[in-house]
Design a protein that fits this description.
The chain has 326 residues and is an alpha/beta fold. The chain has helices at 4-16, 31-44, 75-90, 98-104, 108-111, 116-127, 132-145, 161-172, 185-189, 192-196, 235-243, 259-266, 299-303, 314-317, and strands spanning 58-61, 130-131, 176-184, 203-215, 218-229, 250-253, 273-278, 310-313. It has an eight-stranded mixed beta sheet with strand order 2-5-4-3-1-6-7-8. The chain is globular and about 65 Å long.
Length: 326
Amino acid sequence: MIRPIFISAFASVLLAVPALADPLPSWNDTDAKTTIIDFVDRVTDPTSSDYVTPADRIAVFDNDGTLWAEQPVYFQLFFALDRLRALAAADPSILTSDTLRAAAEGNLEAALAGGEAALLEIVSVSHSGLSVDAYQDAVRDWLDTARHPVTGMAYDEMTYQPMLELLRYLRDEDFATYIVSGGGIHFMRAFAEEAYGIPPENVIGSAGKTSYAVVDGVPTVLKDPGIAFIDDKEGKPVGIDTHIGKRPILVGGNSDGDFAMLEWATAGDGPRLGLIVHHTDGQREFAYDRDSHIGQLVRGLDEGPGRGWLIVDMANDWSRIYSGQR
């Protein structure tokens, strides 16, 4: 006969053992969460036919609209506008076009009327003429003080809590996590490690022209005018191949700018998971997809499910949006 005192002691031991923590606490218990956890379980279980060795557990994510917000415009553009205004106040002669003059005046609609070319012109002028180190210091200083015009939050508080949890979960399971984004590589490297736990060497992005010089006796990499590489659309698979040299087995994006990356990554052999963050929550965040001027999502919605990609519905699948919300 088992004595009651033994049962009581055994129960106390069981209660003292912590329950297995939920790796994705800000994800609701929907099919999206189940799909992600099932995929990770399969590729990390040595007894599974879908087992993937740690060396090949590579996960890549877009940044704007996937890891942090991107409305009403990309956050890097807000930085570029603030910096352009400061530069123009010191030297108005840099405003050599209608685009630059409109941007310095804060007329965003007129400044971006020229589309991608106008955006690149603003970024090129505002991001050049200093060292990489000085530029990244300027980015960090800006993040410390700038606030989003709609939410009033610091921009790095508008990272998505569910995605931060996913990044941590993957790293806990021996995945290497990367950013692959159309944003500037030096801009993202200024904050990616602190915000996401992703080190600078794991950030792939668009790149301006750079050069090397010894400045006042100090060997320096300088940011020059002009664009060297655009890490968007078909550029994303090229960037991954150049910097990583392997196809990721998990890839996340939110717009048709990520379509080629998703298409290429999920076409590889073995288990693959493509994930699209669908912005459906106009109450807690911003609702947009097909007709949006930022983060337009058409092909991903139309073709993604047929390709086996997971469409994450922010309104239904996430219990919390921003990491900075308390």
